[in-house]
Amino acid sequence: MNAAEIRSYIREVPDFPRPGVSFKDITPLIEDGSAFHAAVDLLARATDDLDYERILSAEARGFVFGTALAYRSRKGLILARKPNKLPRETVAATYQLEYGEDALHIHADSVTPGTRVLVVDDLLATGGTARAMCQLVENAGGKVAGVAVLIELAFLNGRKTLEPYHVVSILSYDAGE
Ligand SMILES: O=P(O)(O)OC[C@H]1O[C@H](OP(=O)(O)OP(=O)(O)O)[C@H](O)[C@@H]1O
Ligand SMILES: Nc1ncnc2[nH]cnc12
């Protein structure tokens, strides 16, 4: 299954969660075994040449692709979670939402100095979430090997927000798509 076929499994939901937003719903994709498998394979192939030891992904949708890619590439998986979810000492990074601020945490010992980490998410929009994950890696002394997403909303310029990190995406959407 190629990228165009995989794309046909993503449902666009207009005006969710608020007017003007075209929500990219990945649930039909991950509910289809062949499409989900093909999507993870494409992500794996697109990141095969990157040198990394661990994957970092954020709850909730990020876990779906981060976990699958970690399993397939036999790499360790680090969970980035919302505040007060992880039981031991954490490092945190804050990021901007439309209204106010949110934070992601990882356990302080998940990234040792020099660890090379691939940041994985289902979707890149403004880039705030992925940037916070890159900051988490660097705050803990690690190195960002790249950022890999299945879907990129190119018109929101997340890539620019993520400079100078290497960004890999499988499906790119323009405004109005
Ligand atoms: O590039 P950004 O503008 O930061 O947006 C991208 C993020 O938005 C979605 O997560 P969301 O915060 O909706 O959480 P969820 O995965 O729990 O649904 C998506 O899974 C990305 O993590
Ligand atoms: N348009 C969108 N669709 C799905 N998830 C998103 N996260 C941020 N923007 C999104």
TrEMBL record:
GO CC list: cytoplasm
GO molecular function, one term: AMP binding
Pfam families named in the record: Pribosyltran
EC assignment: 2.4.2.7
Keyword Cytoplasm carried by entry: yes
SUPFAM superfamilies noted in UniProt: PRTase-like
PANTHER family, alphabetized: ADENINE PHOSPHORIBOSYLTRANSFERASE (PTHR32315:SF3)
Name the record gives this protein: Adenine phosphoribosyltransferase
Organism of provenance: Rubrobacter taiwanensis
Gene expressing this chain: apt
